[in-house]
Every structure is written in C-alpha cells, then in structure tokens.
C-alpha cells in the first residue's frame, strides 16, 4: 500500500504533471486541493505527465478540510522550509498523506503552527538557494517514505 501526495493550490502545470508521473510510477494517489493555477486539460500539464495520466489516481478537493474529512484516519505530513524536523526524521507509515503547498507561498503559517509535530523540511545546504522545485521536493519526500516503509526492497 502506497502513499498520497497532496498539492495545495499548485500553480505551475509542468510541476503537477511531473508529480503525476511520479505518482504513476509508485502507485501513489494524487490529490489536488483548492484553486488550481491551471486547467486539468492544460497541454503543459498533460505533456509533463506524458501518457501516464491513466495510471494515476487523481482526485480534486475544494479545500484541505474536505480531504481530511474523507480520510479521518489519515496521517498528514506538512512540508515547509520552516519546519524543525527533517523529512528523514519523520516516521512514515503506508498510506500517509504528504502535503505540499503552492510554489510561490507554500503552506499557510496557521496550518504549520497547528501541525508543528507533523511538519517536515528537506535540508538545503546552500545559503543561496531558498527552496527546491515542487516536483523535486515531492520525489525526495516520497522516496524516503517508500524507503522507510520497505517498499523499495
């Protein structure tokens, strides 16, 4: 059993397309939450995902609360460069939700404050680089979760 990637208000079609391909390759569900910065029919989105869209379980939600209400037993991990815990320090379990914010703003401060114990960051070693690309970050966190749960063996 794999994981869920949650994109809250993604803005850049190729990022979402690349993440859809990642989900297809790993059997991970993709949840798109809130207002999207593009149409699901966007040619750049489809191109980035290539012909893998049929292999991806994609669901859309009005907001994060609606998603959480539909998965009351779900464990959610919130990604932010401001989190104290790194993505390697998280104790993932199969079916966890890995939540990523929009490219320009990330997740809300309030959401992170209320979920500090479930907020994680990917260490960035350079003081010059502020953040990683959304699809890169999703791949890093997902593959660590897969590794920890023995799904790469």
- Describe the largest sheet: 7 strands, parallel
Order of helices and strands: EHEHEHEEEHEH
How many structurally independent domains?
1
- Relevant CATH superfamily: SPOUT methyltransferase, trefoil knot domain
- What is the global morphology? globular
Low-confidence stretches: none
Distance between the termini: 14 Å
**Rg estimate, integer Å:** 14 Å
Strand order of the largest sheet: 3-2-1-6-4-7-5
Mean pLDDT: 92
Roughly how much helix do the residues carry, as a percent range? 25-40%
Count of individual helical segments = 5
Count the E strands. Answer: 7
CATH class label: Alpha Beta
Beta-strand percentage range: 15-25%
Give the oligomer, counting copies of the same chain as homo and different chains as hetero: single chain
CATH architecture: 3-Layer(aba) Sandwich
| Structure classification | alpha/beta
Characteristic terms for this protein:
5 helices; 32% helix; seven-stranded parallel β-sheet; Alpha/beta knot; 153 residues
């Amino acid at each position: 059993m794999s994981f869920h990637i949650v994109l809250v208000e993604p803005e850049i079609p190729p990022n979402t397309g690349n993440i859809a391909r990642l989900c297809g390759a790993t059997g991970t569900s993709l949840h798109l939450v809130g207002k999207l910065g593009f149409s699901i029919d966007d040619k750049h989105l489809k191109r980035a995902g290539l012909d893998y869209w049929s292999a991806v379980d994609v669901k859309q939600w009005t907001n994060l609360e609606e998603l959480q209400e539909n998965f009351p037993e779900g464990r959610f991990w919130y990604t932010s460069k401001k989190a104290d815990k790194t993505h390697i320090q998280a104790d993932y379990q199969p079916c966890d939700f890995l939540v990523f914010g929009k490219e320009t703003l990330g997740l809300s401060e309030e959401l992170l404050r209320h979920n500090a114990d479930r907020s994680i960051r990917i260490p960035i070693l350079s003081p010059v680089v502020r953040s990683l690309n959304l699809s890169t970050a999703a791949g890093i966190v997902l593959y660590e979760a897969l590794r920890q749960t023995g799904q790469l063996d």
